[in-house]
Each structure stands twice: as C-alpha cells, then as structure tokens.
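To the structural biology subgroup,

Please find below the input and predicted structure for Pyrimidine/purine nucleoside phosphorylase, which we are adding to the shared reference set this quarter. The sequence is reproduced verbatim from the submission form. If anyone notices a discrepancy with their own records, reply to this email rather than editing the shared folder directly, so we keep one authoritative version.
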Amino acid sequence: MSEFNNVTVVKAANVYFDGKVTSRAVIFADGTKKTLGYMNAGDYEFGTEKAEIMEALGGKAVVLLPGSDDWQTFEAGSSFNVPANSSFKLKIEEGFDYCCSYLD
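Predicted structure (tokenized):
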C-alpha cells in the first residue's frame, strides 16, 4: 500500500543517533501503530519491545538480525521481521526510507 487513510499522525518526530535517524508515528483507528522514517548513512543498533516488520521503501539497508551471523541486504519492496525483546544492527550507506509495523 502506498498511502494510509483515516489515520492520526503524531507531529513530533522521534529522533535517534544525533538526528541521523528520524521517524513519525502513524496510529490507525483500531489502535495499531506504524512509524515512517528515514536513516542517514551510518551504523545503528535498535532494540525492540514488540515484534516488528520493517518494510524498505527506498534505499538499502544491510541488516544483522537476531540469532544470525549473516548480514542480509534489503532494498525497496522487501521487508524483514524482528522478534520482540531483541536487537538488530543496520549498516546504511546512502540512506534508507522505511515503514515499521509493530505487532502484538
């Protein structure tokens, strides 16, 4: 889906890593939440509370998922799952546009 309808967007940005990563929360009528964000070039590590699906909208991310020793590349149109209560690493070379869906 290329757009969301009938949602609430939280205006204040979530800002991480000295402004190199930003996102904004989108809340749906049923209470589910997604974030739309952008990562500038850099190396990052994120922790999760809930399980997540990260959808690549643009750019490329090289990702080390929990329990794996192999880095995987994700580009526009692909996605990856991250379990709850875990952490994952990303290497971004030029920029990465993403949508993160939080699962219950």
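Summary notes: The first strand starts at residue 7 and ends at 9. The mean pLDDT is 96.

Regards,
Lab coordination
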